[in-house]
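Comment thread on ticket #2218

A.B. wrote:
> Attaching the input chain for the structure job we discussed in standup.
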Amino acid sequence: MPTINRSINQMPESVRGRRHYSFQFKLLVMMLLVMIVHHANSQNQELQEDTLNKKRLNTIVYTSTGLYAGTMTLLYFGWYQGTPMTSFHFFNDNENDLQLDKFAHATTAYVFTGYAYNWLRWAGL
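C.D. wrote:
> Ran it. Output below, let me know if you need it in another format.
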């Protein structure tokens, strides 16, 4: 009896392509739904005062700086340590990781921008 589960490398190119784009389409739809819900929820915020609160602003600046430095340190030791460092370069990564890194970068930038906006509004900016 033939096996039904074949590895992706054994499938015809046309089937692999459809599966690849089907996954990307589903991921794109999911990301768009998350962004729509996030945007809809951000419209319901109460009005905040528009006077600058320097103590809150300093808290935001120091906390953000510490979080960024900590994140970059963890990223280096968890991901890049032991790999050779090179200068900036371009390469075609279209076949890698099903383009998930691009979706992740876009989503992370969108979400953190929303947080930054709310934090700065809290500080009175």
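A.B. wrote:
> Thanks. Noting for the ticket: The chain has one domain: 13-79+96-122.
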